[in-house]
Amino acid sequence: MLDNSTILITGGTGSFGKTFVRTTLENYKPRRLIIFSRDEMKQEDMQREFGNHPALRFFLGDVRDKDRLQRACQGVDYLVHAAALKIVPTAEYNPFECIKTNVIGAMNIIDCAIDTGVKRVVALSTDKACNPVNLYGATKLCSDKLFIAGGAYVGDSSTRFSVVRYGNVMGSRGSVIPLFQKLAAEHKEIPITHPDMTRFMISLDQGVELVYTALREAVGGEIFVKKIPSMRVVDIAQAIAPDSPIKIVGTRPGEKLHEQMISPEDASNTYEYDEYFKIMPGWAITQGHKTLEIECESSAPKPCRRVAEGFSYSSNLNDWWLSAEDLRHALKGKETERLGQDARIPSDVVLT
After folding, report:
1. 74-112 confidence digits (pLDDT tens)
2. Mean pLDDT to the nearest integer, 131-159
3. Cα–Cα distance between 323 and 231 in angstroms, integer?
4. Does the annotation count 128 as an active-site position?
């Protein structure tokens, strides 16, 4: 699919970007793979890390700068939008900046992709965009809505937009895991906001694979939601720092006790596949879009079904849980694609 193509990834020097670039170069032979980001030092480090690979191009730029983004999109076939301001407290304190990057930046991506004839655009989302309670989640919900509407906005253009949504990425810079590891090394207390707090967990490799799925299969306007395990935050601490004391510090402003990736309001537009869910856009449903009905026929290569009315995909109601031992194996670099799959338990069982 990506052989002999030109790919652009915004925010390409981040944790996801590096994994996407490495995986793509290992499995495909792109003509060009453009890293678009605003930190020249990270680009310099990444260029050395990848040994000046001949397919890589490094563009300094910000998604807020539409002219620069337009230049970077010239001749691009596939665009992965990973650039965002993601730290919840930072977004609360700097709302204008968060909106400029996460919302205005998304608008610029859509306009530039259509104007330059990009074939497919996949935007990264977050569980915090579902029924958001903080500014970061609200801006990502706006971004999701923009990309979903992009399918109705393209006119005669062949550009297709889709979104991938998943939970906390294990080991990424924004993950709590590096913080817990640092505190454990310093023999300090591990702060836990609430003893019952749960989160969805995903590996970087799984996140990249979901993007590939969207690039292959998107018709336009869908949100792909990866099926992934849940974990209690106290179990994350137990896995990383079993000998460190835990201190309950209270839930922070804008923080949910449990995360949600599909709300009951989305259930009527949601279809379930073996490895993911697909939320179809409301405009496609109201306009009589037949793609999903055809795709879900028994003869289809990937049969699916519409989820039940009132269905919700929430971290506390999941039937797939990650144990402390599973996480320890993951952090040791062992296989993560099947994490917890042999340990599915009823959602009302409390893990210890």
Report:
1. 999 999 999 999 988 899 999 999 999 999 999 999 999
2. 91
3. 7
4. yes
Which residues, including other chains, have CB under 8 Å from residue 46's CB and lie 6 or more apart? Answer: 12, 13, 18, 21, 35, 58
Distance, C-alpha 182 to centroid of its chain: 25
Q: What is the value of pTM for the model shown?
A: 0.89
Residue among 46, 285, 14 nearest 171 (CA): 14
DSSP conformational letter for 221: S
Residue 168 pLDDT grade (very low, low, confident, very high; cuts 50, 70, 90): confident
pLDDT class of 226 with cuts at 50, 70, 90: very high
Helices 176-185 + 233-240 axis angle, to 10:
40
Angle formed by the axes of helices 105-116 and 135-153, nearest 10°: 20
Catalytic residue among 86, 128, 140, 256: 128
Per DSSP, the residues of 291-343 read HHHHHTSTTSSS--EEPPTT--EETTS-S-B--HHHHHHHHTT---TTTTGGG
Dist CA 271 CA 293 (whole Å) = 10
Which tokens go with 334? 């062992």
312-346 pLDDT tens trace? 999 999 999 988 888 888 777 644 433 443 333 33
